[in-house]
Queue: 3 jobs
Job 1
Amino acid sequence: MARNNFQYEKRQRELDKKRKADDKAKRKLEPKNDVDADGNAIVQDSDSDSDSSTDSDNNTDSDAVAPAAVPASPA
């Protein structure tokens, strides 16, 4: 009667685990693509976060309020 080759089966399970771990690592490195309600892909760039911090530092936002002009005091 034939016997099972347990070492072969164990090796196949180990290879499957490794393959799954590699696939998971690749997915983590890829940029996330979200899908909205209409089924359109929404791509989020990581550069947009760094751009917003430089905009606030330079006060180039349209919402920024300029300081009020102070009239010169008579001397």
Note: Residues 53 and 59 are 10 Å apart (CA to CA).
Job 2
Amino acid sequence: MSRRLTALVIGNGAYEDAGELENPVNDADDVAAKLEACGFSVIKEIDCTAADMDRALKRFKGELPDNDVGLFFFAGHGMQIEGENYLAAVDTDTAGEVEAKYSSLALNRVIETMEKAATSTSIIILDACRDNPFERAWHRSAAARGLAPVYAPKGTLIAYATSPGQTASDGHGRNGAYTAALLQHIATPDCSIENMFKRVRNTLSAATHGKQISWEHTSLAGEFFFNLSLGARIDDYSGSALSDGLFVPDEAKASHRIIKALKSLTWPVQNPAIDELSSDIANKASLDSLFVLGRNIYQAACGGSNSAVAYLNDFAARTQAVKPEKQKALLDGMLFEVFFDPKAKLRKEFKTRKFEDLFSLQQHKDLSSSFDFITECLLPEAGRFYSIPGRKHPVVVDVATTADGAANTHRLKSIHCGGAGIMWLEDEDYAVEPGEIPNAEKMTIAKFEARLAEQMVVPSHLLTVNYLSFDKQGHERILFPYGWTVRKR
């Protein structure tokens, strides 16, 4: 089940005339990260001027038609003027209501933009009910403070940090009280959006001793879940196939006999079974059976079965006569086995022994649907990866070294990706005293780059390695310190 989700997240804290707010930037950063983990593509903007907010909304407008769900999140100052709501930019003119109105982003404009994009679900979340000092300076009545209730078009949910006409504090921790409660519950697996916001309301009320009650106005026609568990998101295969520890082979079925042989973990049993796997057997098998079979072929290949290794390496040719949906099920199973254990839980250590051979298949255009499948499986775990395996996103690594005494030998100093150092000591037994040179493994450039690809879980055809201290010729040797790694923490 593929979901197309996009979001615009804005956090404004550095106000010129209304006093700086501490939390909105953190709120935007943290909400954006949660949304990305739930599968959203996110446009994030921080400390926006009125012109910045205008440009961001136009960009968001361009993304909406290609998506099923659109979400807008704003943290910062908001106000109602003549019964309409406005979201303040950092340079909003606070001299008076007219000036503020025309130098802010009108909430109705956001609503109308999302309504006309015709996405099936529109979600607007506003942590924008803070008590604005410039509103008080306008000598307004208390009834005109905070945000006003608005019309929610069909398929829309609008969530407020507090009840209409009320205000909320900026908060005392990293996040505003409302956003802190939202972050606590938004990724709850298989929790509908309505129930999620009920949990937010209860947590917020408890945290503020009943002083702040969040509020939603909804006209949603269907159900939406921010975080679907694997079994709920992936409907191509049954639960017993995803959790193949529950799979019970049926001796009457040829594909099941091969699965049983592969589970023996014995090469003399595994190899003949793999050799018997014909296109005819594959075409007669169910998708569930082939998914489990794919898992066990990859497992056998990692275990050293020559026939399984040969089948994996020659997969495209060996499955040429297999129906496309059956071929996909086999490859889906292989990819799934890399990352998920027999209970369909993400592995603590990925099964990467044959990762490079398997992911080289990504270069076959007609096999791309399987890599889309594993991407969808891994979306909620995006934080475990430099780039989610399955996506064709290039990854660039910069390597700094120092010359060693031996010719063409370079001692590894640091490795950087995305502007940050990614080398770290995984095994404390290899720690050395300050100033000491750690023992290191000498390896060829090819082996070093293969080590990076495996530990970073990035296929070599998507990994570019730049050497900052020398021009790569291919015959150099790299000294890689024992106990260190570039695995994502």
Note: The two ends are 29 Å apart (CA to CA).
Job 3
Amino acid sequence: MALQYPGRIVIGIDARGGMVAVEGWLKTSEMPAVELAGKFAHLPLAGLVYTDIARDGMLSGPNVEALRAMVAAVPIPVIASGGVTTAADVADVAALGAAGCIIGRTLYEGQLTLAEALRAAGEGAE
């Protein structure tokens, strides 16, 4: 599909403890998330959403070490998901070279505004 629609497909990899989580996060496989990501590195993907499921919705900050490893492992733009809560978290994700991050619960609960997130990412806000 990525070959047929270059630059228009985003894949998602969910991980627990660095290992790929499957079947709705019920099972953890024996495959490291960075290894699975590497299998897609040759494809013309728009991006890869990397979710650390232990942090997702917990408002506990992103798993910086796992994210750093994922960004370093593939040439695909990586979007961080899971735990991003504060402007400092957004700045940390940007500093790692991630293409972006998903901020959900923190927005819903009013702990971070979109303008604050954009400023922290170095994008400015209008």
Note: The mean pLDDT is 92.
